[in-house]
Design goal:
single chain; alpha+beta; Multidrug-efflux Transporter Regulator, Chain: A, Domain 2; Multidrug-efflux Transporter 1 Regulator Bmrr, Chain A; eight-stranded antiparallel sheet; about 25% strand
Length: about 260
């Protein structure tokens, strides 16, 4: 055996890992021992492998999954791109949550006025999208909206989001475009009319949950059965309206369709 090889304990200290971690990474193929004694099963490593051990420790501290670390160590180009996107998305969600919390701290629990309105049935073209979990609903909704906004129109499109009451994993969301004509890539349907409890949300889409809370509270206090889907009627154009001035009507049906 090469005298330059290091026993696992010394190698672990050199690489700033525990012996248990080294064994685990060895089993995963991230730190392949240079030599394994066939009689004792002891693992030995080259000192040059300490850089890989330190790299694993660094990348794990940056929340990089082990599967991606393997790609990084093998020199795969762009291996960290997906991790970067995930952390960016998580950061955006945290900022959104913080903004909503600050609003509650400043204004108290939401108590948006609720009115009862009667809506007619409408012919619509419906585009659906699936979110892997509730945190990805905004992205899925944007994808459905993009498909419908691609349809040429002389007037501003009337868009209505349709969301399930119970958010599981995955979550299927839909966006309806009010239209008398079928739209390519969308399902032509009729959106039922009837009586609805309606509250108006003013502000960013990622804070709509605050107004939804007020609307659901109003229904609960009056013992109204809450049926879905919850509708979001987009009054403002987000491409020309500042986020803090966006107007959205939230509506819950008070009658069975």
């Amino acid at each position: 055996m090469d005298e330059e090889l290091l026993p696992i304990g010394r190698f672990a200290r050199l690489g700033r890992l525990s012996v248990k971690q080294v064994r685990h990474y060895a089993q995963l193929g991230l730190l392949v021992p240079a030599y394994v004694d066939e009689h004792t099963g002891y693992r030995y490593f080259r000192r040059e492998q300490a850089r890989d051990a330190l790299s694993i420790g660094l990348l794990r501290s940056l929340d990089v999954p082990l599967a991606v670390i393997a790609q990084v160590l093998s020199g795969t180009s762009g291996a960290l791109d997906g991790v970067h996107e995930r952390l960016e998305a998580e950061l955006a969600r945290r900022r959104s949550t913080l903004a909503a919390l600050e609003r509650v701290m400043a204004e108290g629990l939401p108590s948006t006025p609720v009115t009862v309105v009667t809506e007619p049935a409408r012919r619509v073209a419906v585009a659906t999208a699936t979110a892997a979990d509730p945190s990805a609903i905004g992205e899925a909704t944007s994808a459905a909206v993009a498909r419908l906004r691609a349809v040429p129109s002389a007037a501003a499109p009337e868009l209505i989001g349709l969301f399930p009451l119970d958010l599981g994993e995955p979550v299927t969301v839909a966006v309806a475009l009010v239209s008398d004509q079928p739209v390519a890539g969308a399902e032509f349907d009729v959106l039922p009319g009837g009586r609805f409890a309606r509250a108006t949300h003013v502000g960013p889409y990622d804070q709509i949950g605050l107004t939804a809370y007020a609307l659901l509270s109003w229904c609960a206090e009056r013992l109204h059965p809450v049926r879905g889907p919850i509708r979001e009627v987009y009054v403002s154009d987000p491409e020309t309206t500042p986020p803090d001035r966006l107007i959205t009507h939230l509506m819950i049906p008070l009658e069975k369709p």
